[in-house]
């Protein structure tokens, strides 16, 4: 499903963020990416939706070499990957419904499909009743659930999240995790970078630990392994 | 099956284009003064484009008309006797390519000068007593290409004061047109660049204001073409808006010039290109140049931004 072979990433300023990554992730897996700040977790994630290109090495997603992809093909890669960030990245002037529908409109989905699908995902993340609300009328956890709804509205095979609970209090974080588990149960691969010891140690999944751009640990049903 | 597919695709296209126009128009209003400034720059540019093109094309047209003139005018030396004049006429008749040779006395010459000047010609009436003009031969060539050759040969004959012919005037006019064209191109190029710069900056404003939105569009897999759409429309509309005043100006101005020139049509060779279709063609050029400036400006500012 996802296969990285000897992946290196050196930024233009000379900083090497990834230092020879080898990893394979199967369809339907739930993977935590852990490690100290600056270890290379975000860089690892950015590779997968082609925000950045590896300096060396190959990266396959669904048997397609993502590092070789032409600029023109990148949008179509991204239609198969949902991305979620710490800061939600919602459009403040659009309602909850519009924020989610936006993701389908800009890839030119027929309107008649949009309405049904948007309400479906809002139901899944438990926000059907707040479809008309605006982002600033929602709690942090609710805003993050809107961004999750937007990430999955296009039925991607992979959802990647970079510290999705980083801005949320512990209680709210569990709402988010419930949503992720539900998405994972329907067969979607989830890759999530996190600093939350509680989450990793409670909801046991595969744990990949990165330090100084290298994978130093890869365990199924692993522990967080750091003092937080 | 195929038909419904095509229907779905055209439906999609129509919806997308509508969306791009809606967003593009929104931005035009959102950018307020920058919109006014860039439309103003396009307007100035196109006014000049219109004026210069109108002038240059007409001068060219006149020069071509004159070039086609087959008449050579031979001014006869003031000291020539009647016999000299007659023998000169015979010699000219024998030159190859000459069709007719007509004698025009200095009184005929003065009369036609007075006529051609209209009101102002009255001054010349003073000279009726003491005519300072030369007797002349009006020589007609078979073909326009022969005139220059005939003129040159006539110049070498005895008792010829000077020779004038259409091509000479035409060449001077062509030379003038080419100067005018050079100056016009430099001026217009400068203005076009200014207009493109202003438009691309206006559109950059829109891009900045919408960078968050564009970031999300890219994230969820919108194509660059789709993202570019509204900016393309915004640039196009800025260009087209800028061409409205110049087009009205060209149509009205040209009508005015045409009317005032036909009023004094006695000035023989001043004949401008007819309003229909010339003024309309000029308007079309202005519209196309305006749209081009707008699209170019918008593509310039979007291109950098869309590079990943
Ligand atoms: N765009 C960038 N340009 C230059 N250096 C960067 C860039 N992004 C990240 N880095 C550097 O790469 C290293 C890894 O960063 P990152 O992948 O963000 O780690 P993490 O997400 O684990 O904190 C850090 O040293 C960081 O400073
Ligand atoms: Mg990070």
TrEMBL record, chain A:
Question: Pfam families recorded for this chain?
Answer: ABC_tran
GO terms for biological process?
A: cell division
Domain of life of the native organism: Bacteria
Compartments annotated for it: namely: Cell membrane
The annotated topology with respect to the bilayer is: Peripheral membrane protein
The residues covered by the ABC transporter domain are 2-228
Q: Which CDD domains match?
A: ABC_FtsE (cd03292)
Q: Which family does it belong to?
A: Belongs to the ABC transporter superfamily.
Q: What does this protein do?
A: Part of the ABC transporter FtsEX involved in cellular division.
PANTHER family per the UniProt record, alphabetical: CELL DIVISION ATP-BINDING PROTEIN FTSE, IMPORT ATP-BINDING PROTEIN
Subunit comment for this entry? Answer: Homodimer. Forms a membrane-associated complex with FtsX.
Q: What is this protein called?
A: Cell division ATP-binding protein FtsE
**Name of the coding gene:** ftsE
């Amino acid at each position: 499903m996802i296969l990285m072979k000897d992946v290196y990433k050196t930024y233009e300023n000379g900083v090497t963020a990834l230092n020879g990554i080898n990893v394979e992730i199967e369809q339907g897996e739930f993977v935590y990416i852990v490690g100290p700040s600056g270890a290379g977790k975000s860089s690892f994630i950015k590779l997968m939706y082609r925000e950045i290109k590896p300096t060396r090495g190959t990266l396959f997603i669904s048997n397609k070499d993502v590092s070789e992809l032409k600029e023109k093909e990148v949008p179509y890669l991204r239609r198969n990957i949902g991305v979620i960030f710490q800061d939600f990245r919602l459009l403040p002037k659009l309602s909850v419904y519009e924020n989610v529908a936006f993701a389908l409109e800009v890839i030119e989905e027929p309107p008649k499909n949009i309405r049904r699908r948007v309400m479906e995902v809002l139901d899944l993340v438990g926000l059907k009743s707040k479809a008309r609300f605006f982002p600033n009328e929602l709690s942090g956890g609710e805003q993050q659930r809107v961004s999750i709804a937007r990430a999955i509205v296009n039925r991607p095979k992979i959802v990647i999240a970079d510290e999705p609970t980083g801005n949320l209090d512990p209680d709210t974080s569990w709402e988010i995790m419930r949503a992720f588990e539900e998405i994972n149960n329907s067969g979607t691969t989830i890759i999530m970078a996190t600093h939350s010891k509680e989450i990793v140690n409670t909801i046991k999944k595969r744990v990949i630990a990165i330090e100084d751009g290298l994978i130093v640990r890869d365990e199924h049903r692993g522990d967080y392994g750091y003092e937080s | 099956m195929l038909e419904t597919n095509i229907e779905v695709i055209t439906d999609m296209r129509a919806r997308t284009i509508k969306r791009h126009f809606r967003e593009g128009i929104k931005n035009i209003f959102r950018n307020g003064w920058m919109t006014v400034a860039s439309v103003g720059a396009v307007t100035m540019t196109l006014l000049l484009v219109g004026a210069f093109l109108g002038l240059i094309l007409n001068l060219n047209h006149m020069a071509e008309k004159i070039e086609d003139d087959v008449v050579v005018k031979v001014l006869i030396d003031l000291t020539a006797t009647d016999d000299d004049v007659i023998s000169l006429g015979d010699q000219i008749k024998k030159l190859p390519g000459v069709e007719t040779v007509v004698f025009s006395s200095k009184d005929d010459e003065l009369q036609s000068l007075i006529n051609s000047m209209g009101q102002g010609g009255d001054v010349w009436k003073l000279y009726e007593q003491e005519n300072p003009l030369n007797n002349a031969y009006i020589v007609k060539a078979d073909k326009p290409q022969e005139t220059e050759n005939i003129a040159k040969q006539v110049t070498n004959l005895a008792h010829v004061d000077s020779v004038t012919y259409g091509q000479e005037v035409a060449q001077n006019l062509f030379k003038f047109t080419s100067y005018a064209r050079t100056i016009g191109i430099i001026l217009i190029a400068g203005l076009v660049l200014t207009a493109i710069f202003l438009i691309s900056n206006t559109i950059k404003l829109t891009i900045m204001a919408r960078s968050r939105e564009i970031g999300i569009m890219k994230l969820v897999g919108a194509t660059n073409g789709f993202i570019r759409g509204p900016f393309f429309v915004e640039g196009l509309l800025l260009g087209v808006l800028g061409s409205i005043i110049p087009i009205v100006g060209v149509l009205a101005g040209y009508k005015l010039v045409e009317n005032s020139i036909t009023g004094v049509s006695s000035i023989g060779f001043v004949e401008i290109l007819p309003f229909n279709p010339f003024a309309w063609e000029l308007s079309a050029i202005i519209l196309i140049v305006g749209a081009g400036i707008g699209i170019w400006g918008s593509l310039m500012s979007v291109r950098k931004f869309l590079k990943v």
